[in-house]
Amino acid sequence: VLKNGYFLIPQGSAMTVNKNSLYEDGDVVVGGLFPLHYSPISSVTGYRAKPTPTMYKYFSSRALRWMQTMTFAIKEINQRSDLLPQIKLGFHIRDSCDDIPVSLRASLLLVNGQPESVNGVESLGKHNGCAAINRTVSSIIIGDAASGVSMALLRSLGSFHIPLVSYFASCSCLSNQREFPTFMRTMPSDTFQIRALARLVSYFSWTWVGVIGVESDYARFAIQLFLQESVQYGVCAAYTYFYPVVLSQHALDELMDVIQMSSSKVIMNFSSESEMQGILREVQRRNISGLQWIASEAWATAKSLWEKSADLLMGTLGFAIRRAVMIPGLKQHLTSLSPSHIHESAFLAEFWEETFKCRLNGSVNSHSHGVDSYLDRPLCEGTEDLGDVYSPYSDVTQLRVSYNVYKAVYLVAHALQDMSNCNVGKGPFLNGTCADPKNFKPWQLIHYMKRANFSSLGEKINFDQNGDPIAYYDLLNWQKRPDGSLHLVKVGFYDASMLAGRSLVINDSAIQWPAFRSVCSDSCPPGSRIVRRKGEPICCFDCVPCAEGEVSYMTDSFECLRCSEDTWPNNARNLCIPKTIEYLSYHEFMGILLCVASLLGACLSISIIATFYTYKDTPLVRANNMELSFLLLVFLVVCFLVGLLFIGRPSDWLCRIRYPAFGISFALCISCLLAKTAVVLMAFRATLPGSNVMKWFGAKQQRASVLLGTAIQVLICLIWLLTSPPQATGNTHYHSATIIIECVTGSEVGFWCVLGYIGILACMCFVMAFLARKLPDNFNEAKFITFSMLIFFAVWVTFIPVYVSTAGKYTVAVHIFAILASAFGLLFCIFAPKCYILMLKPEKNSKKHIILKTNGNSGQQL
């Protein structure tokens, strides 16, 4: 309650305050809140006795360094001539104990001024039943470290426009300027830290992460942001667990059960070092090993955790705020503690006694950690030296939060400097007025703070519209030195000002790892795809091989991609490779065999032509229609050579030659046979008295009949070529992994018409040869033509079902085989007997033999 310019605190609150503060007067007094004590000891409070003061387990040497950094920065500014030369800054610093009630009480004391001191003890005057505090006010507060505490302070002091500059509160909720318009910070918002953490776990393919945090606004907002951000990187939370600030054994048991029951070995913890200490003790007691800890910035540099848990924390990764290489003069300021300072300040007295485990004579320390052990301590000798012991207080190698405190003080100083530079009539307030730097309203100061832009130790400092600085984090890896001490190694960084793809930089080779593995499901290798498990997190899935004809190129692909028409997956199904090209080649065994057979048939036909030509004047050759025999042999040579057109890679022109050549060549052959058969049949008809049939079957008529029979086939082929000609194509449907280069007929009707016409000619030839098979002639060809036609029919009737049921080069091979088989059948059946007589039985090749045979047969018939 505010009354007459004073905050009034109820009398029953039992507020007796001693020297637990640091104060130095000035024209402008800057308030400070630091968690020098933390982790309250729980106690049962009754209603019959006055509650005892809250005791705390730990004293923070780090927080003392932060506090001393604030006093150092203020003294440094007071000594400068270029910054606030006419204004002296003062400070009023109190302990917040990382506890909201204590912080609220301390903040009220800060904004009301430094209490009067009576006999070394700060007292509260009474006014109408209330305690009144003198009005040496702090118009601005630097603090607090915790996000939850800062939110509570803002809700209490925000109505009075008291600026609050936090050096360690990172909750993204504090960026809400509508709710917290007087809040600024030198600590980046968790929004950026969470982005960095999500990218970190994704970078190392940790898809199964346990997320825990203390019951606080800081942890709740951070975990909520992480769960939202991690989804886009395919990272799943194996579990999410919040534990109380005061960790009882029951709470620890529940937390450990969650950790042990999960398969996740990566744990991200959003808490301060006090909660982490309790967790590590229980992890050590249960002998849980192989964990990869990911630290939030709240404990990423907390070296005190290493002392008893080095083996558990080795390999820990965490983002820490930007480190100042050095703040000139700070080391000397921290270590130059005089006895008078130690005896006057309860904070310094407690630090001295805890560091050297002794008791100061006349100590003003009112907070002991274990009364019995404290009374047993020896008196301090006065020769103690901070240089002889290690303490986080004097360790200036990791100036991160301390640097934030330093920047927060300079933010206030530069805002006051800008206020001092204001020209009357050109000011930012009503009617161009300016504010008095020594007597200003808090809301006037926040106006200048929001617009502050300055440099500190070479770093450009500015703030966005939410009062947040530009985010930059160092990625730290906890490593063990040979002597067992902790070495915080910078192994990367995250810079929010850079492009998204380049904001995170990691040096993998510099990282020291614990042995662990943290996935719900193993990654799906290339060649497979992810299939979600129903009812389970997105990181739990099965791997299914890509379907036939599909590939996946990357690990953990959600879908497989179909290969193009001319490519096909390899065996691993992670790459599309060119399909195998298949056609009947001259270079393969089958092609070579058929090629040899074709050439052999052609050579045999040519040799028979040569033989017949040699014996052209003999009765045998002359008696069997020599001209048609020569034509037939020439056409058989063509038939044999046509088979070669079916071997080799098909092309459009080759396909358009192949089928007509096949049809026309066989039409010529069968037409010749048909003419020969007709001549034989008509010759015997002509021996009958009064018959003049042979004058219609002379040499010209025979040639005309061959041409006519062939002309019909030529016409069929011509129509076929003009309407829908054959063409080369790649067939990918029969064998998925093979492209069969083949000739498609274009028109099935055309192909079967060509084949059908050959069949019609063959049937006519067979009928006529069958009728003439028993005519009396020693060299009657009709029976040989009959046998050849039977072979011809057997070949082509067998050809049709085989041709239809095969594909690729085997179809072509069947076609060539049918051509060769029928051609050889004609050649051997018709010309082999003649060659036999010509070559081996020359005595039968005589006119006498022919006449005798003919007359004998005629006499028998008569």
TrEMBL record:
Its main location: membrane. Belongs to the G-protein coupled receptor 3 family. Residues 590-854 form the G-protein coupled receptors family 3 profile domain. The lineage of its organism: Eukaryota, Metazoa, Chordata, Craniata, Vertebrata. It comes from the Eukaryota. It is a multi-pass membrane protein. PROSITE patterns: G_PROTEIN_RECEP_F3_3 (PS00981), G_PROTEIN_RECEP_F3_4 (PS50259). It is found in: Cell membrane. Gene3D superfamilies: 3.40.50.2300, GPCR, family 3, nine cysteines domain. It comes from Acanthochromis polyacanthus (spiny chromis). GO terms for cellular component: plasma membrane. This is Olfactory receptor C family, x2.
